[in-house]
Write a structure and sequence with these properties.
It contains no helices and twelve strands. By secondary structure, it is mainly beta. The protein has one domain: Neuraminidase. The strands form four sheets. A four-stranded antiparallel sheet has the order 3-4-5-6, with no helix packed on it. A four-stranded antiparallel sheet has the order 7-8-9-10, with no helix packed on it. A two-stranded antiparallel ribbon has the order 1-2.
């Protein structure tokens, strides 16, 4: 399996009905040899466009999270690792901003936990801020703010998992 990241700038968003779901205008970005890049999360931070994404290395069967600035032409400028561990596979870097702080909830299925990371020094220094044990295997965690509370949503892998 080989994934790629597609970047499309200055077009109607795909979620807008006016786009008609057309895929024209995407620039497909190839990863380094022996890797694939997947699960991009784009944000605007400090007046620039950025992408956080999974960098999977075939040789180690591990993913890490990388970050790169998105150029005006849709290229990734100097991708650099911002979250990696020899013990865990990281993917799906759900990134969000709360006030001036930037947070990430990456998928780390093999860790048995859902961890919230906070950016200390953008984009290279990200530290675990809060974690909770997952009662059963979960993937693709998402965060949503509601008045007076925050909601965490995850996809549960039900095979062999206890009933809710």
């Amino acid at each position: 399996m080989h994934w790629r990241i597609g970047i499309r700038l200055n077009h109607t968003p795909l979620c807008d009905a006016a786009s008609g779901g057309g895929l024209e205008g995407f620039r497909w970005i190839e990863s380094r040899k022996g890797h694939f890049w997947a699960d991009p999360f784009a944000i605007e931070y400090a007046g620039k466009k950025w992408a956080f994404f999974e960098d999977y290395e075939y040789a180690t069967h591990r993913g890490r999270i990388e970050c790169a600035e998105i150029s005006g032409e849709g290229n990734l400028i100097s991708p650099t690792a911002c979250l990696e561990s020899p013990n865990h596979h990281y993917s799906y870097p759900y990134v969000f901003q709360d006030g001036p702080a930037l947070y990430m909830i990456p998928e780390a299925f093999d860790s048995g936990a859902i961890d919230l990371f906070r950016c200390i020094e953008f984009p290279k220094q990200i530290r675990r801020y809060f974690g909770m044990a997952a009662r059963w295997p979960v993937v693709d965690d998402n965060h949503q703010r509601r008045p007076g509370r925050a909601v965490l949503m995850s996809i549960t892998l039900l095979c062999g998992s206890p009933p809710l």
